[in-house]
Write a structure and sequence with these properties.
alpha/beta, 2 domains, elongated
Length: 201
């Protein structure tokens, strides 16, 4: 029993130290509001070295996301923006890649509508468990729909599962607020969660 206790306490200390170190790294990488390829590779190496000794879902999820970003050898503007936003919110302790936003705090359509894909236009905002935004958009295209930026032609706005209670002040909050405004004006745009979207794939 004593050995189990000390092992657990030791793991907790390691995890706490890892999170503190990752917060420092995130703060440093996001300080100049730019992340270059070398910095992303540094982050990938740190996450790889720490993933094996960590039971922290945040580290494993962030490691998978960074690997996806680097898979094609290019960090494009969208990937850069997503990663920078994630690191900024994490370094300010305002965000966890494991903190699923409660549906009641979001302006989701209630009841949630049935989703179809053929000839429908989707817009994605936030951070997704399904993968990067381009993977979500490809899933829609594979089912006969279209996906892209927010406009009044959008049928469905899908909000990623990972977010914070302060979503209105986040990088993706403006899209949600704009969609709400259009919906209130009578436009047929529907706002749904990533979980609801995945159930219809």
């Amino acid at each position: 029993m004593d050995e189990q206790f000390y092992n657990r306490v030791g793991r907790d200390r390691i995890t706490s130290r890892q999170i503190d170190e990752l917060i420092g790294i995130a703060r440093g990488l996001a300080a100049d509001n730019r992340i270059n390829g070398t910095e992303v590779e540094f982050l990938q190496k740190w996450l790889a070295a720490n993933a094996d000794i960590s039971n922290q879902p945040l580290i494993h999820t962030l490691y998978r996301r960074v690997n996806e970003i680097l898979a094609d050898g290019v960090v494009d503007e969208e990937e850069h923006g997503e990663l920078l936003d994630t690191l900024e919110r994490f370094s300010s302790r305002d965000f966890e890649l494991g903190e699923v936003l409660k549906a009641t705090t979001l302006p989701l359509c209630s009841p949630a509508p049935t989703l179809t894909f053929a000839d429908k236009f989707y817009c994605f905002t936030g951070t997704f468990t399904y993968g990067q935004r381009k993977h979500c958009e490809q899933a829609v295209a594979d089912r006969g729909g279209r996906a892209g930026g927010l406009s009044q032609k959008v049928d469905f706005l899908v909000i990623g599962a990972y977010a914070t209670e302060s979503w209105k002040h986040s990088a993706f909050g403006n899209k949600i607020l704009q969609a709400c405004e259009w919906r209130e004006r009578g436009l047929p745009i529907r706002i749904v969660s990533e979980q609801h979207w995945v159930r219809h794939l």
